[in-house]
Design brief:
Pfam families: FAD_oxidored (PF12831). By secondary structure, the protein is an alpha+beta fold. Among the domains are: about 10-170 and about 430-480, FAD/NAD(P)-binding domain (3-Layer(bba) Sandwich), CATH 3.50.50; about 220-345, no CATH class; about 540-655, no CATH class. The chain has helices spanning about 20-30, 65-80, 85-90, 100-110, 165-170, 180-185, 245-250, 260, 300-320, 325-335, 450-455, 460-480, 490-495, 520-525, 545-555, 590-595, 605-615, 635-655, and strands spanning about 10-15, 35-40, 115-120, 125-130, 135-140, 150-160, 175, 220-225, 230, 260-265, 270-275, 335-340, 360, 385-390, 395, 415, 425-430, 440. A hairpin with a 2-residue loop joins strand 4 (about 125-130) and strand 5 (about 135-140). Helix 2 (about 65-80) packs across helix 4 and helix 9 packs across helix 10 (about 325-335). The chain is globular, with a radius of gyration of 28 Å.
Length: about 650
């Protein structure tokens, strides 16, 4: 964790110790790869250790193994510290709600268990080395710009919120918002939406694209416990005019107290994750004042960061002290302060600016609003054959403009949320693979439109993408191929084996540990290939011969699926050695008529087919069709197929 390492080579370099970067490094290390994790600041853990303690996720069911590990670590912390029946355990909501310091302890604990990870803070990217389009090495400066170091690696991952490494390496990227027309996104571009439940769209919502970036802020860790409270400070300089609209909002009944200005969500031990309030026109977001952040050099970025901090500190001071506010309002606000046991190294103020959106690379696939909505004619979001993670949070965006008459004192332009339209979705591998740069994956500043990033940009999703990226790098090194050429099917095999989720079903329980249930694993894999047109896997239901035949035809086109035998055509197939005669086959019911009357696949016939499959593919498996089974379930059939398909792929790779 020092800057003493100079001109050293690693298997993988991860730039950015965000949750995605940490997950990527862990995945790589667990597969035996020497991994260097570089963080340009002194702070590790990104937003999860900087105040974002109320996880942006609708359900843990849609989260992959690495985030589950984190959540289990949080739950274990509170259980060991306070007892299984404690208030703190209840308040942590199964590990989804946590204090910043606890998140730091859990993430650092995950890192400490990995002997192959070298973590270095304060390593600011200064230069990249490329050969043709291949990223080969990077140069970094230490704290204060001193002691430059050069690091080379076989492969790289950019896990920064800003996409700094990808941009410096020459990857194309987008900034701002697309228009409705560019990708056919209904809510793209200029939009005035009432964030209240009605979600009314106001006139002036014309949908043009622009270079605007959704607002940044800080996720404050506040408390009203007098024994753990640090008073708010008045920033210097203090600009009262920034907040001068609030007294009128109070007089006109739009806000009544500090909780109407800040969205103060409880986390354990009497603290809050205090965010911008959706209904307040003057909250902790600072629209229109982050345009100069993304492309700026580090020193200029610090000025933008300080501007945001000064704004938020001024807001807090205003709420407690401005005499134009009612005394009752000020007294209510006066109960609150910064948590004294958090962020001591940064004056009890969060160290990380909430960069919700910055650069978005142009990759092999562009994820849009439409990828997170129900596909036309289907019962689920669009299927992606190269899915490597799933997401489940409503598409949203924070404001891109300050208060205007068009917003009617209700809406800020650009602020939106689509909870009734957003479906649980798959995220394709191609979103992480940048155009025009080799040997690099980008799991945070992914290839997405502004609207598409509006749901991907949540830390649990970014962690899953980071974990997938780290696994992809390790597998590429093992197979001797580039990350662009990597067999995504092989990657999916590896991810499913370690608890990653790549397809969601409402009726198939999630798994978060290695192995999982073979039928569930198989369904998740085949769910990326179009076998299911809705969110029902129905794994316990009998499989029909029509379904089985269609699945076989589809699987034959997959990596490793060539040569998969078809089902036996006859429902009356006898074993060798049994005399078929006497028999008048032309007088018997024709097979199509038989299958119409008896649609389910008989176990005996399935066993014959499975034996033929093992013979054709030269593989065997532990999952089989039981002799005493009344029928073959969909889950059993898919599990048999997937186990053998995966073995065949692995065998083919080893033979090469």
């Amino acid at each position: 964790m020092t800057m003493a390492i100079t001109n050293q080579s690693f298997d993988l370099i991860v730039y950015g110790a965000t949750p995605a970067g940490i997950a990527a490094a862990i995945a790589s290390s667990r597969r035996g790869k020497r991994t260097l994790l570089l963080e340009p600041s002194a702070h590790v853990g990104g937003m999860m250790t900087s105040g974002l303690g109320r996880t942006d996720i609708r359900s843990l069911e849609s989260s992959g193994g690495i985030f589950r590990e984190f959540a289990e670590g949080v739950l274990q912390h509170y259980t060991l510290a306070y007892g299984a029946d404690s208030v703190q355990v209840k308040e942590c909501n199964g590990g989804l709600w946590f204090e910043p310091g606890v998140a730091m302890d859990v993430l650092q604990g995950l890192l400490r268990r990995e002997e192959r990870i070298t973590l270095m803070r304060g390593t600011e990217l200064t230069e990249v080395e490329t050969e043709r389009s291949e990223l080969r090495a990077i140069n970094v400066a230490g704290p204060g710009g001193r002691s430059g170091s050069r690091f080379a690696a076989e492969l790289f991952i950019d896990a920064t919120y800003e996409g700094d490494l990808a941009a410096m390496a020459g990857a194309p990227y987008k900034l701002g918002r697309e228009s409705r027309d560019e990708w056919g996104e209904e809510y793209a571009g200029k939009l005035y939406m009432d964030f209240h439940p009605s979600k009314e769209v106001f006139p002036g919502s014309t949908g043009e694209g622009d270079d605007r970036i959704q607002a940044y802020n800080y996720r404050l860790c506040l408390t009203d416990r007098a024994d753990n409270r640090i008073e708010f400070r008045k920033p210097d300089p203090y600009d009262r005019e920034r907040y001068a609209s609030l007294p009128a909002d109070v007089r006109e009944g739009r806000i009544g107290g500090i909780r109407d200005v800040l969205n103060m969500l409880p986390i354990p031990n009497g603290k809050t994750d205090s965010n911008n309030h959706h209904y307040c026109m003057c909250s902790s977001d600072l629209p229109e004042e982050n345009f100069d952040y993304i492309e700026a050099d580090p020193r200029s970025r610090e000025k933008v960061v300080e501007r945001h901090r000064s704004y938020v500190e001024g807001l807090l001071w205003f709420l407690q002290n401005d005499e134009e506010l009612p005394e009752s309002f000020r007294l209510d606000a006066g109960r609150w302060g910064h948590a004294a046991d958090e962020f001591a190294e940064s004056g009890h103020f969060p160290p990380q600016l909430y960069v919700r959106e910055a650069r978005r690379i142009e990759g092999e696939y562009m994820f849009t609003e439409n990828d997170a909505r129900i596909a036309p004619g289907s019962g689920r979001a669009p299927v992606h054959a190269d899915s490597i993670a799933i997401g489940d949070y409503p598409i949203d965006s924070h404001a891109t403009r300050k208060r205007e008459p068009e917003g009617r004192n209700i809406a800020l332009e650009g602020f939106l949320a689509l909870p009734w339209l957003t479906a649980i979705y798959q995220i394709p591998y191609g979103c992480m693979v940048p155009k025009r740069v080799e040997r690099l994956l980008v799991p945070t500043a992914v290839s997405a439109t502004h609207m598409g990033l509006g749901t991907i940009r949540m830390e649990p999703v970014w962690m899953q993408l980071g974990f997938a990226a780290g696994t992809a790098v390790a597998l590429s090194l093992e197979l001797g191929c580039g990350v662009r050429e990597l067999s995504v099917d092989r990657l999916q095999d590896e991810l499913l084996a370690i608890g990653q989720r790549i397809t969601y079903f409402r009726d198939a329980s999630a798994f978060g540990r290695e192995g999982g249930d073979m039928a569930q694993v198989a369904a998740e894999y085949f769910g990326t290939k179009g076998l299911f047109d809705d969110y029902a896997a129905s794994l316990e239901e009998p499989v029909t011969v029509k379904e089985a035949s269609a699945w076989i035809a589809l699987i034959r086109r997959l990596d490793g699926g060539a040569g998969l035998p078809v089902l036996p055509a006859s429902p009356t197939l006898l074993k060798a050695g049994i005399d078929m005669g006497p028999r008048l086959p032309k007088s018997e019911v024709m097979p199509p008529d038989y299958w119409a009357a008896h649609p389910f696949l008989p176990p005996a016939l399935a066993r014959v087919w499975l034996a033929a499959t093992e013979r054709a593919w030269e593989v065997s498996g532990q999952t089989g069709i039981r002799d005493d089974a009344e029928y073959v379930s969909r889950g059993n059939f898919l599990a048999c197929l997937y186990e053998r398909l995966k073995k065949r792929r692995r065998g083919a790779a080893e033979a090469r």
